[in-house]
Protein 1
Amino acid sequence: MTEYKKPLPRPTATSLPFWQAAKRHELQIQHCTKCGAHIFYPRDICPECLGSELEWIKVSGKGVVYSYTIARAPTHPAFAEDVPYVIAIVELAEGPRITTNIVGCKPEEVHIGMGVEATFEDVTPEITLVKFRPA
Amino acid sequence: MSLRGKAAIIGFAEMAPQKGDGDKTPLGIISEVARDAIADAGLEKKEIDGLLTGMAIGDYSVLWPSVVAEYLQLQPRYFGQVELGGASAAGMVWRAAAAIEAGMCQNVLCVLGDTRSTKATGTKPPPFPRLDAEFDAPYGLIAANPGYALIARRHMYEFGTTPEQMAKVAVDQRKNACKNPAALFGQKEITIDDVLNSRMIVDPLHLLEIVSPCTGGGAFIVTSAERAKRAPHRPVYLLGAGEAGGHCGITRARSLTTSLVKPAAEAAFKMAGVTPQDMDFVQPYDCYTITVIVTLEDAGFCKKGHGGPFVWEHDLTYRGDFPCNTHGGQLSFGQPGLAGGMSHVIEAVRQLMGRAGERQVKNATIGYVNGNGGIMSEQCSLVLGIQ
């Protein structure tokens, strides 16, 4: 297996449950028990009501493409072999938006409003990235 | 209390952008433009008692304002770093005015300078925000290009904005650059086809719709309205200012297509007591073509979503019906770090002082400037005018 050279997330105490869930191929985000907000990325308090009672919930992994770009030139040297690749913002069914890649289809097939679902890519023994594919 | 008319820019200096690193350090550039701006304002160095500066990627460290003060042997009574990315220079104008109005100081040197890379200093460039590194970078959403491509794509989807309309911004601004001897890309005009046939970098943005980082710097002097009366050039007064923020990574922006320019510009026009239609020219931050379109909409120059048709129907050149980025914009002038954002402030001042040479907008008395940082994440709008 060749060494993975692309940027990797460095989980913190706050975000670790998200990355651990991803490793189990589950999408988990936070939910505020006070105001009901769904929260992503992970935080220590609710950014809407500033409440501190946040719980982790497993979500559907369904969403729609909110916007996307096809990188025709690498956005970082380590992505050179992936060109062309799709960088996207997916709006989860629960509300929050997440940065991701759309995989499992040709870049030209991606469009705004396209239904997608989470898919999990184990890029290193420690890290699994959450990507999306056509639903 | 309002800052309207309380302070003025009375002098400026700007280094012509250079493509490579050049042979100076950021501090070398900063010291030269600072010296020239002080002279242009008709002041002596000892009269400078305020200093605002901003991050230099080519020489990044903590305590930068003190480094700059020490290098120039200034003794500021008010100083600091404005950390608003490309909006830093616009942000300096009202902060300087506020400090003067509050009695903290009299003459504020606002200065930015940077090199293309860290080659001259051997320092490490500043890191990207950690949360962007954790949640965006693993997917290739890194630096500004893909972020603005996401905005452009969504704008096209919501409003039918076309690649040709976006390209028109670059084409018209290049015409302005051809009248600016300092512009990095001022040798030859370009066409819509040139833009659309240039290399696709992050679809839908082509190479000629993207700024070119370079080496350069700029400085201006802000003083009180009272002191400005004795200045050698026509003083350019701050009439209105507004600022807005709220996200860092574009994925966390509340909207991709209605930007924070809206509240910033509304506040600036309200303070100035004028409307967008009163402006003789605009100098909106233009890291990408789409940035200009979104800014013109949100600042109120046209209806939301009509930015594409608006730039298509208007002549954005210095002699056109809607003079926009009369120095060429950063797309054609170049982007010397945060000093790229300063180029819009300085060009507005140049126009209002009547010192814009061949590209002078006739009878220019009032203009709009917008500074934009990060991925539409820092916005500072200004209304500047003469009295």
Note: The radius of gyration of chain A is 16 Å.
Protein 2
Amino acid sequence: MVKSFLNKQQNNNLLWYRELLLVLIRRSLKRRYRGSFLGIYWSLLNPLAMTGLYAAIFGPEFAEYYDNSNLNYILAAFTGLVVINFFSASTAMALSSVVENGAMVNKIRLPLAIFPLAAIGANVFQLLLGTLPLLVIVTLAISHSLINTIALFLPLTGLILVCTGVGLLMSGLYVFFRDLPYFYELLIFVLFMSSPIFYPPDIVPVTVRQFLILNPILPIIESIRQIALSGNLPDLMLITHSLASGLILITIGLMVFYLLRSQFMDLL
Amino acid sequence: MVIDNIDLTINCGEKVGIIGANGSGKSTMLKLISGILQPTTGTVRVKGAIAPLIELGAGFDTELTVIDNIILYGVMLGYSQLEMRSRAKDILEFAELETYASIPVKGLSSGMTARLGFAIATDVTPNILILDEVLSVGDISFKNKCSQRMKDFWQDDVTILLVSHSMDMICENCHKVIWMEQGRIKMIGQTQDVINQYLECVDPTGMSSSLPQVNQ
């Protein structure tokens, strides 16, 4: 163990982590959008285009589940897509982050958890500038309530916690299991299909429905839809549920990451 | 086990050279000291700020511009973004890359990249500096500049650990030399003694006598 940490240095370390996080987030955004014309707005265009596609194909069929309103179906599909897109993009980026920087951490002493955190952070930044403004506008337009708009940030916090937990978990496991990205792709698809994103929750067979409780982003999608689209005051039960989902996953993620961490360097 | 049974104390301000064959554990030892690796058994104690790198330029992102890399690299070495921004000009000047500030690092030659790495890592004086074969960078005029900056460090009480295969460099710069072999310390002592023994061992025919620095 390297023991160079007095109390003051502990404090300095926290500052250093923050600086590192910011600088790595900037690096990843700069890299991703270098030379790109629309840049960050791709994260808005993508769900919009997909929503259009779903609306064209499934809209007429599923509208009856949404009070016979095409618009309601479109909004439900859009909110679902925003959540699942954020989840898959941020966790997939976090997954490879530790291994990708393996050569570097063999040369410079850096806290390893900073890489998955920076990956999530870069995606949070995109979410805030790309899709969140539209989500806020929709919420304001439907609920006419500032409370709902502010409450929107609670399930989003749950989402970020879920993604951070899953990101830490996957980035740690990937060091040991290099097949993980292929498996993870499959897992994302399962999650995509098992979340009522482009179909109404009511069509899921009852026998299958009981397994959906295992889907950590389901309460988040439900809560965001309830706050943004129902026009009612925020449902505290759903919010609690999505925050709990986040807390459980981040605890698991942190624990696994820190348990595995000591063995990382031999494999990077 | 890469290195085993190392019992070593390096005092403040000492300039220590580390020599040995490839794979003898020199870099691993530096990684342990700098905190990159944790020892399986035993402890490493470090007092003071240590430059946590063993290879210059290892943290560069070649897609980003020189100026972005100065900030990125500086933050990785423990400084704040603000601090690095105010230092960027000096660093560019020392590396003689003022006109390249907004060019991606992948557009620089390897010598220029190494110069940039050296300029950033030595711009601020850490208490402990670890150098793993890094001084052989750049052209002759830059090398002279490096030596000058290193001499400044040498006069301060900066502790320096230097890994090199250049006996010239070790002789010139170190008070004390550690000779590593197969993960153990084979010999430790005065620079001249250790180097003589080392050269005798690796080159018993005496070819090394053509090297001026051991001809004393």
Note: Residues 22 and 54 of chain B are 16 Å apart (CA to CA).
Protein 3
Amino acid sequence: MNPVIETRQASRHYGEGDTLVKALDEVSLQIQPGEFTAIVGPSGSGKSTLLQLVGGLDIPSEGSIHLSGKAISQMSGRELSDFRRDHIGFIFQAYNLIPVLTAAENCEYIMLLQGIAEKERRERVRAMLERVGLGGKENRRPNQLSGGQQQRVAVARAMVSQPDIILADEPTANLDSQTGADLLDMMHELNRKEGMTFVFSTHDPMIMERATRLVHLRDGRIEQEEHRA
Amino acid sequence: MLMLKLAFRNILRNRRRTILTILSMFGGYVLMSVQLSVTEGSYDQMLEFYTKDTTGHVQITTPGFVERPTLYKSVPVSEDIMSALSEQPDVQAVTARIESSALAYGDTKSFPVEVKGVHPGREADLSYLADKVSEGDYLTGDPDSDGYYEAMIGAQAARQLNLGIGDELVLISQGADGSLANDLYRISAILGQPEDAEARWVVLPLAAAQAFYVMPGEAHRLIVLGRNHHQARTLETQLQNWVDNRWPESDYRATAWQDVAKDFYRTMQADKEGGQVTLYILVFLVCIGVLNTVLMSVMERTGEFGVLKAIGTSPSRLFWLIVLETLVLAFSACVIGVLAAWPINAWFTAVGIEMAEPMEISGIVFSHYKGQLSWYVFAYPAVVILLAAVIIALMPGLRAARIVPVDAMRTL
């Protein structure tokens, strides 16, 4: 099976000379379709950096990143933004919803960029918000929603455009444990039922429990990998 | 639509700042519109006066006469021709003029004068000549019982020649046929004041001037007044067609006032453009303030732009979002600006500001600075403000477009 993501000897360095910091050091990794992968490790181990490289938000200093067979590390700024729009869904730790748009509009935004017709956009948004348990809250703005609800909107936003992969950077870090567990159950269910590929950067044990694969990072290198049934 | 919604909601985030920005653009718009209205109104008033008083809107002459007037270049004139010309669309009034020079004799003195042969009735309808009579009566056009034609004389010439109303005036010149022209006239009126443009004129009825210069059935210029001086170019084309049809064998020319008084027209244009520099300085100052606001708004939202870019918004779309937001501000300022500037410009047009010292040109008094109520005085500032908004938005827009998502999101 072709991997959804493949990093080949990907490194990310900051600074130079004596101040050179190797945030990620020659990481080679393959993520297969349908995986529920957690990248774990202590703070500063390079989890977020790896996720940013995989998501095309940053460019590797060395090596390459391939998503669905395409080398994203060689794309222009415009190509990268189109690529992110069409192939990647992001869930951020701080939700990062657009504050002036309603829950429905936040979800609709990416599809608008994709040029999907208004009627279809509306239908998909309604169905997705229903699915994440936010039916009836479509017209609320982020500041009118709780943290858990905002993260659900972020999940809906990431999924509604039907990307190849969803990258979630510490998605439960700002949520209480019950809300975090509910959200994880929902994502886990989407993974099992619809085969959606998830990659998390986390040190949340709840995510680790549910992950089918754990990638342990330390000092920018893969220390260990675990595959679970 | 969602982008427009996003732009609207973004500018409504900080309402106080938005209101202040719109107010500064609004102020710029109103000042510009009112200044433009007064400038255009004043120039318009002056040009309408000038064209009516001097050139008419279009003249029909022989080729080259406008550039180099001479006694020998004439066009045919008759009541039939002037009536036919009057019936053309958009023509309001028509007259004919003979223009040359002569030596005038009074009691014991002589003085060089400019002779104008005019059709008394038609000239009074077309120009301000009748209003310039400071003493005596305007020309009747008919010879008196002794067979003398009347003449009106400029104030300076009258003073130099020591002549008054009812006195005899002798003119000596050369006829168009090369003969020596001389004749006697009775002064019916004094024109203007010694310092006025017509101070050295002698105005004769057309028939008298034709007889004096031996130009039977001819004149130097057929003067046509259209609806207004703005439409002179259209009227010029229309009358050239009329001329070509009426005299197919001739090369008579219809010439708009802009070419007849080329130097005057250029000077007016240059003066007008010079006046607009003030407006552009004003717009520049407004722009600096607005640029500051837009830049601040972009910097405050750096993290948010990072997110928008991360989820797939292209750099160009982010750029246009900033341009759109600035344009919405500018458009709102223009809409409110039109509502505020309209009554001010209407008042200037109807009433105007009284000059401290009324200005008198050739006996016509200008006492008020008048405005102009036209689409131009509203549209031009709007175009300038909207264009300035786009220029203002360039730098913040490029800044937003160049944001690196991963760096920008660290500011959240």
Note: Residues 108 and 123 of chain A are 10 Å apart (CA to CA).
